[in-house]
Amino acid sequence: MKAARWYSPKDIRVDEVPEPQVTDDSVKVKVKWCGICGSDLHEYLAGPIFIPVGKPHPLSGETAPVIMGHEFSGEVTEVGRNVTNVKPGDRVVVEPILACGTCPACRQGKYNLCSKLGFHGLAGGGGGFAEYTTFSSKFVHKIPDSLSYEKAALVEPMSVALHSLQVGSFQIGQSAIVAGAGPIGLATVECLRAAGAKQIIMIQRKSIRQKYALRSGADVVLDPNEVDVVSEVRRLTGGIGADIAFETTGSEQCYKLALDSIHFSGTLVVTSIWEDEIRYNPNSIVMSEKKIIGSICYNNDFPAVIAMMADGRIKAEGYITKRIALDDIVEEGFKTLTGPAKKAQVKIIVTPDKSLL
Ligand SMILES: [Zn+2]
Ligand SMILES: [Zn+2]
Questions:
Q1: Residue 243: inside a domain, yes or no?
Q2: pTM for this structure?
Q3: How many angstroms is it from 59 CA to the middle of ligand 2?
Q4: How far is the centre of ligand 1, averaged over its atoms, from the C-alpha of 305 (Å)?
Q5: Which of 279, 294, 309 is the last residue of a domain?
Q6: Both 12 and 57 in a single domain?
């Protein structure tokens, strides 16, 4: 079968590889659509980050080249003999987590905090940029007919966003700031809207992404180059500041603006992955008892996202900006998302099945 494999930075190849075989506890999935994620782009430009090179991943036992792709939907074609939750013909999404099941975090059910955490589609053992993949049945979720395979490829990034609301203890009726209208920022806006935010304020510099933010459900977009974000947020929130903020950009400027725009006792949730250290004076949280908390992946968030996407509470309209064939993944996918026109793209989804294009 065909699969896109990462060899080294800027070297991803569509190769012919053997088709994976089911084990007693795994499920074989015929991939329909798989999204290209920001972490895939980091691996492409500056990897390896999550990809095992030299030393095998402790859970997959594999090293590069590895098959990529972790945001995918597909149809079950075969199941192992111990599998009872899905059967051939079922429409599914895969929660692409490799967790050991025995470390202290796993024993508490916090599998997203596993000390050996890996991702199907980065750590080896297969992935969604392929015709078929196999994965542990307990991380395979059925989807209803009302959720298209295309939109189902968005369940994974939406789950990252929904999890960040849970981690930040977001409550109905709160006012929220989201820094950055990239895929995760826009997903956070969608989830806040679905979860009953009173007001959603996006921080985003001038680009087409400002329009995307409004379409996703933001009430207002503030450009830090044009307005004083902190005083503008205060004005928009009756002089007090927002209840909660979500930092999705990984930029020091946005981190500080988001932190300074929440009120006393407010919460800053950090979903972004950072390349560098940042500087700020902790007095900005001491004197106001603000809370800062990180959020990674998802933990039992897939079922809620599937339900909310299936009935339209999470719409994700316009979120998919391009559909391409697996053969074109480098030229039309990775190069587009890292090239001059990248701002216009939100999510590019890839299919190994040209009849779907
Ligand atoms: Zn991802
Ligand atoms: Zn573990």
A1: yes
A2: 0.97
A3: 10
A4: 15
A5: 294
A6: yes
Report yes or no: 193 and 199 within 8 Å, Cβ to Cβ: no
Residue 276: predicted pLDDT: 86
Report the distance separating Cα 344 and Cα 98, nearest Å.
Answer: 32
How many Å lie between the centroid of ligand 2 and the Cα of residue 120?
A: 15
Rounded CA separation 248/95 (Å)? 21
Q: How many alpha carbons lie under 13 Å from residue 189 in its C-beta half-sphere?
A: 32
For residue 342, pLDDT beyond 90: yes
Q: What is the 114 CA–ligand 2 centroid distance (Å)? A: 4
What's the token pair of residue 123?
Answer: 């750590």
Average pLDDT value for residue range 137-149 = 97
Average pLDDT over residues 214-233: 98
- 107 Cα to the center of ligand 2, angstroms: 7
Q: In which domain, by residue range, is 271 found?
A: 158-294
Q: Does 171 have pLDDT greater than 90?
A: yes
Number of H helices, E strands in the chain: 11, 18
Rounded mean pLDDT of 307-319? Answer: 95
Residues 6 or more apart whose CB falls under 8 angstroms from that of 349 comprise: 33, 34, 35, 36, 150, 153, 320, 322, 323, 324
Give the closest ligand to the alpha carbon of residue 59: 2
One-letter amino acid of 251 = S
Q: Are 261 and 238 contained in the same domain?
A: yes
User: What does the pLDDT average to over 31-57?
Assistant: 95
Separation CA 168–CA 199 (nearest Å): 16
Nearest to 27 by CA among 65, 67, 72: 72
Q: What is the mean pLDDT of residues 206-227?
A: 97
Strands (E), 66-109: 66-67, 71-79, 91-94, 97-98
Between CA 177 and CA 218 the distance in angstroms is: 9
What span, in angstroms and rounded, lies between the C-alpha atoms of 194 and 167?
Answer: 16
Q: Which ligand is nearest to the CA of 156?
A: 1
